[in-house]
Amino acid sequence: MPTPFGTYVNVRYLVVLPGYLLQLQFDDGSERVIDFEPLLLGPLWGALRDETLFAQVRVNSDTGTIEWPNGADLNPVILHDWPEYSEQIIAERRARYAAIV
Fold first, then answer.
1. Which of 38, 48, 81, 87 has CA atoms 20 to 30 A from the CA of 97?
2. In sequence order, what are the beta bridge partners of 33?
3. 72: alpha, beta or left, given left = phi > 0 and alpha = psi -120 to 50?
4. CA distance 5 to 48
């Protein structure tokens, strides 16, 4: 299904890797490893620097994306097409939380 971010996909499976990395598998068969460390700024995402909390990420089969117990999540299309969106998202987070970093 088309969305403003591209064709909708669901995350089917994930593996937590060392260093704030997640390996994601999507329902179109593609896989991606994403480094979340640059996103871990601010009250919601910064809390995920706690490696125990970060490792509690799960796939929500109702929404088709990943989420953490503290409510952090991302659109699965953005995750799927991460190279296309990552620079902008990381730059926005750094600008928003520059005083905190």
1. 81
2. 23
3. beta
4. 25
- DSSP element (H, E) containing 56: none
Architecture label for domain 2-96? 2-Layer Sandwich (3.30)
Give the Cα separation of 19 and 48 in Å (integer): 12
pLDDT lower than 50: segments of the chain: 101
Average pLDDT, the chain: 92
Every domain of the chain and the residues it spans:
2-96
Q: What is the pLDDT of residue 4?
A: 61
Task: Write down the pLDDT at residue 98.
Answer: 79
